[in-house]
Structure formats: structure tokens, C-alpha cells
Amino acid sequence: MRIILVLLVLVFFAGVTAAEEVSGGGWPHFLGPNQNLHTREPVDIVSFDESGPELLWEVEKGHGHPGPVVFGDTLVYLHRIDQEEEVIARSAETGDELWKHRYPVEVGQSYGIVDAPRAGPTFSEDGEVVLTVGNEGDVHAFASDSGAILWSVSLPEVYGEAPSFFGYGSSPLIRSDVVYLQAGTDEAGVVALDLKTGRELWRCDHSYFGSFASPILVTLHGEERLLVFAGGMTQPPVGGLVIIDPSDGTKISEFPWRSENFASVNASTPVPCGENRIFITEDYGKGGVMLQVAADGSLSTLWRLAEFGCQFQTPVYRDGILYGLGGSGGLLLAVEAASGQILWSEMMYDRTILWQGRDLPVSLGKGHLVCVGESFLMQSENGSLFHIELNRHHFTILSKARLHYAPETWSPPVIAGGRLFVVQSELGRAMRAYRIAK
Predict the structure, then answer these.
(1) What is the rounded distance in angstroms from the CA atom of residue 270 to the CA atom of residue 315?
(2) In what order do the strands lie in the sheet with 223-230?
């Protein structure tokens, strides 16, 4: 077992989950402060024209889709440069480099897609530690002020190689003094590590191996539970939702939900939708399903909706309605969570945005929504940005812009400190910060 220890006093971590919201702002975790694509800080969105909000800074970026995490003025992200992965910290205000750490990786490819990081970093509750998971399963805990490595663990060295199309892509979950990770192997689908040392606390054997979806903590019938939507490169294809007791790793229940297509993965994070209801979705044929959780943890189907299939986009739940971009084409949907009724849908193919003298059509594709108070920001997969209002009856576009014109803008936009952080992954890879608050 490769564990590098540094004799430093570590602070305790705390995860941000649906089970316990965290006060304050920032964006310390993948999918936001509470891992549900809602901001916590009040943001009065500035009006912008088709050239976009004010650009504050821009830096070149390496390969990889993860967006940044932000705590105070520290912004951290993970990418690949040539044959090395790099964890880099910058000032969220200026973009100036604070520290960085590189380590070598083997770069292969699958289905013509070259290896690159996919899991986002995670900050501790007090912001003093940041955790990353690399494409080859290298887990590092860094002191966020200096970049010093506090401990590290190689998941494949400890638990064996996980069957995966594109490497390790599930972002870590941190709660109290525990970090939860998808190791993705037959005997260790999910593991819990001690945050001060990296030592294993427990491992959970479930039926579905690993995935690119990230674990979350929720409260079900008054008890805290860990949710993992698993399923990756296995033949025959298996996958589904796993409910785990986070105190000891006991598997409580499973619900199979995976396409019969071998070349498919589960990658969208589960969405809590009111009392004891969970929505999961995939985009290889089955679509989405709303599950009801009984007091004993067993799962039953409330409704299914093939149109609400999301590959790795995570829908947003607000006031009894699920909003999201379904399918590869990006069908903007509003669905009543209690019944599964589609309230309205929109492709936006007839919308255009001016870019370098040309009116280019909007293609939402595998884009993302972020709830910002009473409105939403929506980012398309080729670089357009919308400020919109959504409700059960209709949507209203307040502002629209094109920030860039390039494919695979797959990282959700990040909002922290009145700034919007956007990753351009192709055709001029970059990290950009915009002024988004009035």
C-alpha cells in the first residue's frame, strides 16, 4: 500500500451534501457548495450583451474536463500537460499562480479519446486542504496555502485496476473526518479513507463497479446515507444506484439502472428531489427514473422518462420541478418531480448568437444549468451562455452571449465571489474568469 505521510497537523474536512448544507459562498466541490448546482452566495447577475460579461482574466489550460473549485481567493484545478498531470492553485481574483504540483502519468486512449483528468478537486470545510483524484487513480491531499503534499494514495495499487473506459472520473466527497471515493473494483466499489492519514476505514462491495458519477450524502427517513450511481466498463453491462451506510460501509440497497449497450457509462450524479425521492439518469437508452426510498432503504419506481436521459449533465431540482438538458442534442426540459410530467421542452435550434461577425446557431448539447437564486445560468457545450428564468410554465431569456466557439465545453460553470469561471476544453484550451455580479 503506497501511502506517503507528512507529519503535519491536519484540520478536519466537512463535505457539502444534501444532508447538511454549508453556510457561506464559494464553490468548494464539484457541482457547487451542496453538490446540487445551486449557489449559496447571493448573486445579482449583471446584464450582458452577446459579447458576454466583462472578462477579468484568462490563462492557458492543459487537457482535461474538470472545472475549478474555489475557496476564498484560492482557485484549484487539475489538468494534463504532455505526460504529466498538474494540480495548480491560482488567485481567484487575479489568476496569478500560487503553487503547482506535477507528477508523471501514462497517456493512452480509448475509443479515440486521449486520457485526461475528469474528476474535480474538493476543498475541506475550512479551506486548508484540497483533495484531487487523477486519471490513473492517484489521490493527493494538499495544503491549500502552499501545495505541500500531506498524503497520497494510489487507488489501483491498493484496490486493483478498476474496469473503466477513460480512467478514474468520479470526484471525491469529503465529510467530517472521512473522504469517500469510488475505487470501482469488484471487492471495493466504494471506499472511505481517514482524512488525516489516507488510511482505509472501510470498503463496500456492491454489484456495479465504478462510474464517472460523484457520490453524495443525503438524509433519508432521518438517517444519513451515501448515494453512488455506479456502472462502467463491464460485460455484460451492469450499473445502478447503491445506497450505503456512511458510518461503516454497509450496503443497504441497490437499484439496477444501466443501458444494455456495452459502450455506455453512468456519469450523472443522483439528484435528491424532496422527501425520500432520488432521480437518476443515463443517456444510452433507458433515460431517467424517479425512485422512492422506503424506510428500510428499499427502492421503488415512481416514474420513468426516456426523454430525460443525461449522459453526464446533472439536472437541477427547484420548487418541485426538475430542469435539465437531456440527450446529446440538449433538449431543455422542465419536468414535474412528483409525476414525471413534461411541463415544457425547448431545443433552441432557432436561436443564434453573434460570433466574429457571424450569427451562429445555438447548440445546447451536453450543457449545464446552475441555479443562482431566482434565476439560472445555462452554458452550452460549444461555449454559449444564457441568463434565464425558469418556471413550470415557460422560460425567459434575460441575456445571451457566446464566450467561445469550441466543442466539449463539458465542465459546469463555476460561480464564486461574484465571478463566473468557465473552462474551454478544445480549440484553444483556457480557463477564464468573468464579472458576473452587479
Answers:
(1) 9
(2) 216-220, 223-230, 240-244, 251-256
Domains and CATH numbers, the chain: 3-435 (2.130.10.10)
Residues of the chain with pLDDT under 70: 1-25
pLDDT, residue 25, reads 61
Burial of 181 (0-12, 13-18, 19+ CB in 10 A): buried
The CA-based angle 250-255-256, given to 5 degrees, is 125
Contacts of 90 (CB under 8 A, 6+ apart): 59, 74, 75, 76, 96, 97, 98
Q: What is the maximum span of the chain, computed from C-alpha positions, in angstroms?
A: 60
| Distance of alpha carbon 383 from alpha carbon 51, whole angstroms | 12
Q: What's the number of CA atoms in the CB half-sphere (13 Å) around residue 172?
A: 32
pTM, to two decimals: 0.92
Residue 66 · residue 343 · CB < 8 Å: no
List, for residues 273-291, the tens digit of each pLDDT value. Answer: 998 999 999 999 899 999 9
- What is the CB neighbour count within 10 angstroms for residue 344? 14
User: Which grid coordinates are listed for 210?
Assistant: 465504478
Q: What whole-number distance in Å separates Cα of residue 277 and Cα of residue 11?
A: 34
Report the C-alpha gap between 94 and 310 in whole angstroms.
35
Q: What is the predicted pLDDT for the residue at 245?
A: 98
Sheet hosting strand 97-104, strand order edge to edge: 69-71, 74-81, 84-91, 97-104
Q: Determine the Cα–Cα distance for residues 209 and 182; give it in Å rounded to an integer.
A: 8
Integer Cα distance of 139 and 371 in angstroms: 30
